[in-house]
Amino acid sequence: MSSRERILGRVRRALADVPDDDPPYERAVTRGYAREHGRRTVAETVELLAENLADYRATVHRCADGQLPDLLMRLLAARGSRSVVVPPGLPPGWLAAVDATRVHDRAESTAHELDRVDSVVTGCAVAVAETGTIVLDGSPDQGRRRITLVPDHHVCVVRVPDQVVSSVPQALERLDPSRPSTWISGPSATSDIELDRVEGVHGPRTLEVVLVED
Length: 214
Fold this sequence. Notes:
alpha/beta, globular, six-stranded parallel sheet, 25% helix, four-stranded mixed sheet
């Protein structure tokens, strides 16, 4: 008997006394918790997002939709980026003004190849104001998870207000549970036992978030 068969056998034994008409999990579990803390206008929710992003040491920029290509060009130029990873569904106009080599998100790309790329530009699935968190779900404008974890510089574009929610419960309602999700609260960082902070350990050392208003 394989390990898989033993595990599945234990699961079947554990479920043997569950009635056929037992309520499904989503109805059996009470979800009476607060869905958000306080009431805010849309503008206040966006301001809270910007504040919490900055608190996590992300750099926040704001622009109108038509200003995005020039802003991305300036951000990548200021970084000295000569190459940028491009997810397959990134709107082509976003990088129209960028003078850098496009590196396409390919299944065969290795970690060493991605590590040589200077920056990555993506969209996002949703942004959570109360926690200052950006969520990626691998959609075409975000690409595979690894392209946002290996390059040292990540520029993430958030559409305001459509992609901004107040709380984590509201964010979860927008996400497809079958898709892989990456939750980002600031640049990657860790601390040792003496609380010395080191950035860029598990992902990008620098996170820049662009809040784009339609």
